[in-house]
Each structure stands twice: as structure tokens, then as C-alpha cells.
Design a protein that fits this description.
By secondary structure, this protein is an alpha/beta fold. The protein has helices at 13-24, 37-51, 65-79, 102-130, 151-170, 189-202, 206-214, 226-236, and strands at 4-7, 28-31, 55-57, 84-87, 133-138, 176-183, 248-251.
Amino acid sequence: MARTALITGSTSGIGAGIAEALARAGCNVVLNGLGAGGEIEALRARLAQEHGVDVRYDGADMTRPAEIAAMVERAVAAFGAVDVLVNNAGIQHVAAVDEFPVERWDAILAVNLSSAFHTTRAALPAMRRNGWGRIVNVASAHALVASPFKSAYVAAKHGLAGFTKCVALEVAQAGITVNAICPGYVRTPLVDAQIPDQARTRGISEEEVVQKIMLAGQPTKRFVGIDEVAALAVYLASDAAQSITGAVLPIDGGWTAQ
């Protein structure tokens, strides 16, 4: 029987890449995220047709705990379990801490951190019943190190790393692994949206943001590929990775090695 993967924030960027890779690996997929209805349906239909798996979309709002729980319940009802849970949904805002809008702080913690608690809490009972499960939290190099003007994002990602370790210990003998992937800069819509904000906040050009801010700390001097992050997620979701749990794994071009 095919396993089922639910990936939050999977209508674009890293999440869409992970959804594609898991579908290619034979998983049924539940997509979740924002975007135009026609574009989401085109993605859903393409993944299903190209990979021969059942692909569904759930529009649950990652800031609303009741909607998150209902999404997981629907997936479990349809497939028997969420075998692979990928907590990828994320938003960003760049500002000095004393100018940081309170509502943006609350939203970033809700989407980037609390949503992973709500999905995990809802998905674990079926994983325990089946004696098998994989939870992959897409954190960030900012789960390991900080950058200025990103207080909410860095706080949320550090929290996600700690949450990963706690849950891994709780389920260590249940056939369930819990790990965090920590990408460096990946050229996604989220990163593209940061470039003008960073330029404005720092008073430099957008090209300088890319070269002197984003890639300055990555010794490889290149963006991490979405396909590279997706490949790591697929490996962590495999049987071969059963002894990897509670790990916070950088995939950052050497950024956090410095």
C-alpha cells in the first residue's frame, strides 16, 4: 500500500519541490498552501498524472488550529494515516525589532512554529497505531544561527529545532522519526520577496542584497537547489533513515560550519 504524505506550504517553492519528489517516490500527496485556484489544481492534476498517485489539495489556514486539525483528520479518513508529515509552511517579515509589527510577529510564530505543533499533534495517533511515521520539519539555517532584522523568523525556527528534538525523544520507540532540515538561502518566492525589503531596510541595492547579504555567508556562493532539499526530505522519509531522528540537519553550502 502506498504511503501518504501531507506537506504544508506545498503550492510553491520548497514545499512544491518536496511534494513532487515524494509523489515521484510513490507517495500519495496532500497539498496545502496559498495561490490561485487554477494554478493549484493544475499542480495537483499534473502530479497525479505524471506519478500515478492520488494527489489532493486542502486549503486549511496554517494560522487556525481547528482548520489544521480538520485537515489532518480528513487525510487520515481518506488514506488511513498521514505516514509522512512535512511541516514546511513559512512566512517572513524583515524589520528592526523595535519597529517589528506585533501582528507580523504573531503571524510568523503561528505559521512557522505553532502550525507544526498542531499538525504533529493530530498526525501522531495514526502513526503510532501503524508503528511507522516520518515527520520532517523544514526549518532553516536560521534555526542554528541568527541574522539581524529577522527576530520573529529566527525565534520561530530555533523553536522548531527544539520542538523537533522533543518529539523525536517522545516517539523514539514507536517506529516514528522526527527531523529538521535547515536550508541556507534557496531561490524561492519567499526569498525573492525578501530582497526588496532587505534593500530598503539596509539602504543598499537588490543585487547587493543577493551577493553581500544572502550569499555572503554561504561558502559555495550559490543558492541551495530546491531539488537538493527535496532529495534530503525523501531520504529522511525512507526506511533507510530509521536511525536518524532528532537531527537538525543543515543543507546550507557551509554557512553554519563557520
